[in-house]
Amino acid sequence: MRFPTSVRAFLMISATSAAVACSDDATAPDPSGPVTIAIAQSLTGQTTSAGAFTMTGSRADSGSTTEVLTFGGPLTQSPVPLTYVRTLTGKQGSLTVRGSATLTFSSQTAATLAGTWTVEKGTGTYANTTGTGTITGSANFGATPPTGTLTYTGRLDR
Question: What pTM, to 2 d.p., does this model score?
Answer without folding.
Answer: 0.81
